[in-house]
Structures are given as structure tokens and as C-alpha cells.
Amino acid sequence: MDGPILLKYQSDALADRSPVVVIEKSRRIGASYAEAAGAVLNSSVRGGANTYYISFSREMTAGFIGDCAQWAKIFGAGASKIRESIFTDPVNPEKSIIKYSIKFNSGREIQALSSAPRSLRSKGRPGEMLIIDEAAFVDDFDELLKAALAMTMWGGRVRILSTHNGEENPFNALINDIRAGRRDYSLRRISLDDALADGLFKRICAIGKREWTPDEENAWRSSLVARYRPNSDEELFCIPTFGGGAYLPRALIESCMVPAPLIRFSGSRAFNESSEPSRRAEMQDWIEEQVKPLLKNLDVERRHALGMDFARSGDMSNIAPIEVGETLHRRVPFLIEMHNVPHKQQEQVLFSVCDGLPRFFAASIDAGGNGSYIAEAARDRYGSIIEELKFTEGWYRDNMPKYKASFEDRLISIPMHDDVLEDHRAIKIVRGIPRIPPGNTDKKGERHGDSAIGITMAYTASFRDGGPVRVGVGRSRAASSWMAGYA
Question: Element (H or E) spanning 431, and its range?
């Protein structure tokens, strides 16, 4: 067989030596097989350490230890035969557990258990490693994780891998906590398509001594997806099954709302048909009357970022500045909405806001479709502090859990307005990912969760290092008492 023994996604996962590694994966892509290789390498080399493996079934456990034996032969690692014994739980002696083990000439061994004995708490010497396989299916995952993490105190490592088993499963909750920044663990995601891109089907063809062609691969993928339906998203593409309902509960959103202005400009037919200089003059008057007074009320001592969700006529364009408080609390001091406003005048408003933000250091601007002009113009004007953002499933998957966590932890304040509330209520779980679903989200047919996306963009931008801080206009700390109390 040509090429490396392990495919790229397998070797990349093994190369991750973070104290805790979590892998959400597709079924049947050889992830556990690769972990067995890592276990042998960890325990068989001189100066190595013991490796422990836990799964939810005896069959999986026996299969893993068999893979370890095979890898030991491939690597030429001196190892004993597989030993099978009974482990008696010291707390509950009636509950016996089958234990498999392989001992190496290094003096270290791999122990594989079919559930989580309490004696796991005594493990965790330097270099020791624990693998929890199909973690979404083990009994009492939370208690198992609590015991497992003790292994990291003296330099041990924990590797957790699984396909999904529902949106409400503790394994998925752990993943959302990682994405939200609540847990400092390494997170890896390997879907069927990721594995195919790295040569999974080519490897299957090579082992089966059959010719690989793109058409054969496409046909195999389609057949596999059809076979797993209606659970193919969860089983193959790392998308947990979900229920309906809003992603952010109304009470949670309202608890983080504070009085703050929402100002709007709606372009009339006459406005859109007038010349650009005429539109510019009218828009400048509106900026002087509505926008600049809000900018002057901002705290000049605090850093500010910005998000802009663009729309030309169908939905609302939202410009959402965000202030980073001394306690790292994020606050949206005001919102600007524009409807049916030409590109040049949206650019005019955006530049006025960016020029006026005190200590302006980062912005994310919608660069999808027609928004690309505004984002590019902002990048030309302000440089690398501008992110030209094109929305992807990955962006929603990585950033929405962190945004939700800011509400749960009361680390954000957003304008108190019914449209803002309803925009946030419009975020749903779509194919396992929190996002705004297609179509209008209000009864008038004018909104598409616009302020929720704009504020999310501002929130994510506020965590970037950004470039040189731009000093804007703004106020003293003592001004604008209506803003006080939300730092």
C-alpha cells in the first residue's frame, strides 16, 4: 500500500498533544484505529507511560485492544499477549468489569475497560494517557470527565472522541463549552467529507484492491449517506440531532437588555433617485443630527469594535459598535439601522461611525454578495483592523456558542428594543448549527435577524487583537449617566 500508514486527519489528531483533546467525528473513519496507534507509541517506547482506554461496550473495548496488538506488530514493539481479567469495583463489588491489557518491554501497558471504574481517580502519573471512546454513549459522562481531568494535574493527557448522540447530550454540551471559550481544551472536527478529502475512500479502495475514481467515490458517498438516513447528519457529518425552538430564550435575552438608542434611516424613492451629491448632503445632515451626538457620548478611555451586517433593500443594514469595559463586559451603546439606502451612503455612515469610535481597534463587516463593496472600502480606509467576513457554517458553529455564553454569564448588554429581542429570538438550530434560518423573521417581512447578526459580528470582533488603536472623538467617563452601571 502506497503512502503513509495513517491519513492526514488521523496523524494530525495524534500530533495534538494538548492536555485535553476532544474530537467530534463521523463513524467508520478509523479514528479509534489511529488512537490505538497512539496508545502503542505512548506505552511501548522507553520512558513511555501507561495508557487507559474506556468505551461503553465490551465489543468496542475488545476491538480496540486488538487494534493495539496489530499496531504493536507493525511497530515491532515487544508486547505480551492480550490478557483478560476481571476488575471489581471497590465501591460496588457486585459490578464486575472486563479488563483487557497488553504489557510492553518498556514496563508500561495499555489497559482497556468497558466502563468507568472509580479507580480511574488513582491514575494520572506524568505521561499517562486516557482515551474515552464514543464518549456520547458512556454512562454518566459528566462524572467520568470529572475523574478523568485529575489525570492532567501531573502531566497526564485525556483524549475524548465520539460521534454525536443528540443536541442535549453532555458530549455536545462539552463541545459548545469549548467553542464558547468556557473550557480551554483542543477541539477537532472530522466529518465524513473531511475524511474523504484526506483520502479515506482511496485507502478503502487500496485495501480492497479496487480502482479508485472520482465517480466511484461519489457513488460510495451517496450510498453511505442513503444507508444512514434519516440520521446521516449526526452519524456522518458531526451534526447532532436537535429539537425546535429559539436558541436564545426570551428571558435570557431580556436579562441582558439595557436602555440604548436605536436610530434608523429609511431611503425613500425620491432619495434613491436623486444624485449622489444630493444624497450625500442629506445623509450628512442626518449624521450630524443623529449619529455624532451618540459618538460624543462614548467613553474615550475604552476600546471599541464594530460589526456591520449589510443589506441593500430587502432587509436592514445594521451597524453595531461595541464597547469593551474594564471588567471585559461588552456593551452595545447604540444601534444604527438603514433600509433601502445606496452603497455610497451606507459607506458614508459607516465611515462616520468608525472615525468617531474612541480607541477603535477591530471591525467585522459583511462581505457576502453586495456587502463586498462596503467591506472592501472599509479595508482600504482602515487597513487590517477590518475583517471582510463571509458567513459560513463554520463561522456560526464556532461563534454562536460563545455569543450565547455571554448572555448566560451576563457579560454583554444590548439595546432594549422589541426588534432587537425578536431578531435574537430568530436564531434557531439549523442542521445542528445555531444561525438565522432562511426567509424573513418578522411579520412585516422586512427583517432577517439583522441586529442579532450585527451584534454577534461586533462581539466576535471585540476579541481580536486588531491593529493600531484609532483614537476617535468621545466623552469623558463622567458623562452620559444612562450608560453607567454596565461596565
Answer: none
